[in-house]
Amino acid sequence: MPRVAIATPDFDDIVDTFRNKLGMPVVDLSDTYLPTLGARLAMCVPAGGSHIELMSPAVAAAPLSQSLQRFLDRRGAGLFALMLEAVDPDAEAELLSRRGLRVLPLMPGAGGRDIHPASTHGVLVRIYPENSYLGPLPAVSQINAVTGIQRVIIAVTDLAAAVVAYGERLGLAVDPPAQDNVRGVRCALVHPPRGGTIELVAVHDSRQAFAGAVAAHLASNPEGLYALVLQAADPVALLEPLRASGLQAHPAADAADVIEIARASLFGVLVRIEPVPDGQRPPADDLARQANDTDWRPTA
């Protein structure tokens, strides 16, 4: 899972928010891809986990721009697509189609293939070539407080069917479904070969805070991408700085050591910041080596 994309009509504002309010290193790719794709693109490249891609329509006649605009007209700004990678996206698309997924025709100018959200519980899945984005990490002195995406949470109504879609049909490794009584959900973790994980969650006991929030979301929204989970050494210590920057941040109702940033202040995206587990911080020397690697290429 190299990245998850966010769509918004206000590109400059979202870049400013993620760069200056959330403190993420952001690479603006618009000069490279606006002429070919008709959309403005930027990549958030924090250390660890999957990247966050920021996307805005720009050229009305371009297919990608039209796709983004349809999404914005229907749902407003928010989580747009989940990216996966394959050696040969076209060959993979044929295989996935035979497994029963609804694979869309190749979009003109696109570097990958799309799976219709109806096949993946409300999530637009885009399959790109391997290493579709190889970008620089920040220098060690510039490492931000939060990581990249550790988990993307997908809210579903039928967990068993979602496990089939992401396991048997997409061909990803899926843990057996488990019941989380603390959060009040049944869930299953999906493990792409690299990057963050995918968590499928279905409401089990809406009296619990987390499950209640998921239930309220599903009451007015279809199944689909629900939240991005980032990590920080001390999320609670970020609360006041995030508030001072203008973001609506608050302790999560289900966990005192987790911070949430409300959708209203982050382009329709719910972000949860969890503590980094002990012993899981990326080694500083690895970060420095990657930051100095100049052999990289962005691919939209």
Q: How many E-type strands?
A: 18
Q: What is the CATH first-level class name of the largest domain?
A: Alpha Beta
Q: State Rg.
A: 18 Å
The rough form would be described as globular
CATH architecture of the largest domain: Roll
Number of separate domains: 2
Number of helices: 8
- Major β-sheet annotation: 9 strands, mixed
The helix/strand order is EHEHEEHEHEEEEHEEEEHEHEEEHE
Structure summary:
The protein is an alpha+beta fold and 300 residues long. It has helices at 11-21, 30-37, 63-75, 89-98, 159-169, 209-220, 239-244, 284-291; strands at 3-7, 26-28, 39-44, 51-57, 78-86, 113-115, 125-129, 133-134, 151-155, 173-174, 178-180, 185-191, 197-203, 224-232, 249-252, 255-261, 270-275, 297-298. The chain folds into 2 domains: 3-136, 2,3-Dihydroxybiphenyl 1,2-Dioxygenase, domain 1 (Roll); 140-275, 2,3-Dihydroxybiphenyl 1,2-Dioxygenase, domain 1 (Roll).
Key descriptive features of the protein:
single chain; 300 residues; 2,3-Dihydroxybiphenyl 1,2-Dioxygenase, domain 1; nine-stranded mixed sheet; seven-stranded mixed sheet; 18 strands; disordered C terminus
What does this structure look like?
With 300 residues, this protein is an alpha+beta fold. The chain folds into 2 domains: 134 residues, 2,3-Dihydroxybiphenyl 1,2-Dioxygenase, domain 1 (Roll); 136 residues, 2,3-Dihydroxybiphenyl 1,2-Dioxygenase, domain 1 (Roll), CATH 3.10.180.10. 26% of the residues lie in helices and 31% in strands. It is built from 8 helices and 18 strands. Strands 9, 10, 11, 12, 13, 14, 15, 16 and 17 form a 9-stranded mixed β-sheet that branches. A 7-stranded mixed β-sheet has the order 2-3-4-1-5-7-6. It has a two-stranded antiparallel ribbon with strand order 8-18. It is globular and about 45 Å long. It starts with a strand and ends with a strand.
